[in-house]
Amino acid sequence: MKKLNCVALIALVFVLGSSCPSVAGPLVFSGSTTFQKRLLEPVQAVLEKKTGTKLEMRCVGTINGLRELIKGEAAAAMISVPLDIAFQETGVPEEGTYQEHVIFKDNLVPIVHPKNPVKTLTWEQLADINSGKIVNWKAVGGPDERIVVMVPPKSSGTRKFLQETVMNNADFAGSAFTAVTTREEIDLVSQSPIALGVLSEGFVKMNPGKVKVVKIKPITRQLSLVTKGEPSRELLAIIKFLKSAAAKKYFK
Q1: Among 7, 71, 103, 150, which is 20 to 30 Å from 214 by CA?
Q2: pLDDT category of residue 17 using cuts at 50, 70 and 90
Q3: Alpha-carbon span 57 to 46, nearest angstrom
Q4: What is the CATH number of the domain that holds 163?
Q5: How sure is the predictor about 119, in pLDDT bands with cuts at 50, 70 and 90?
Q6: Lowest-confidence range among 2-11, 23-32, 149-158?
């Protein structure tokens, strides 16, 4: 009888334990600084309340974010360059199992110091400045001063998109200075009358008065989430919300 009671007690504990809801950890989104700062962070509190899912964001750059998704270290990758281009940079063949979910359209703009007199650039001029063919501001209507080119790190989708779209896959000038973060790029350009950078137009709006935008034909790209295969129920709810008008009003 005692043995039977013990067995029954163990069974009861097992049933009760297994019926308790498990506390799921946050979903990890890894990748693009632009996606994180302009889209996810401004809407995070509303999104988590709406979907009931907590998020953890890793700002490691588009290429590294995609690598983390491939290795199973993230639930989704945030990218700021088309998926096929991003995969080229990872060195991993695209197996066709990854899905790209376009969330928002974004424009890249050249930025200079507020006192720099240059007002417009063509795509060709911007490409030649970034590649080192044009090295003096005088060649594009500015002062007789050298140009200091600021570029994002190699893990950046912005860097790769600029090369693919504007520079015809040319390399950046060997003298170009790599800014570790977008914040650093804005700060450095705001302090140097001879510097030039290229970044998301939204970051300029988030830092009013710090730098000047040089007019150019639109350089438009997409900001997307990437999932491995069909998104889970939780991921699908997040994607649907991010595509909604209710979410977009929070985007920067």
Answers
A1: 103
A2: very low
A3: 15
A4: 3.40.190.10
A5: very high
A6: 2-11
Task: Name the residue among 202, 215, 131 with its Cα closest to residue 166.
Answer: 131
Cα 157 from Cα 69, distance rounded (Å): 15
Token match 């097992």: residue? 14
Do 213 and 113 share a domain, yes or no? yes
Q: Print the SS3 string covering 98-150.
A: EEEEEEEEEEEEEEECCCCCCCECCHHHHHHHHHCCCCEHHHHCCCCCECEEE
Are residues 128 and 145 located together in one domain of the fold? yes
Same domain, 112 and 166: yes
Q: What is the dihedral of CA 229, 34, 50, 16, to 10 degrees?
A: 60
CA distance 214 to 196: 10
**Does residue 7 carry a pLDDT above 60?**
no
Residues 99 and 127 in one domain: no
* Residue 242, SS3 per DSSP: helix
* Chain centre distance of CA 20: 38
Average pLDDT over residues 103-123: 97
**pLDDT confidence tier of residue 24, bands split at 50, 70 and 90:** low
- The yes-or-no verdict on residue 216 having pLDDT over 70 is yes
User: In terms of residue numbers, what domain contains 151?
Assistant: 106-221
Per-residue CA distances from 147 to 128, 132, 135, 232 (Å): 11, 9, 5, 48
Q: In this model, does residue 100 exceed pLDDT 90?
A: yes
- The model carries a pTM of 0.84
Q: At what angle do helices 157-165 and 83-90 cross, to 10 degrees?
A: 110
Token pair 């998301």 is found at 200
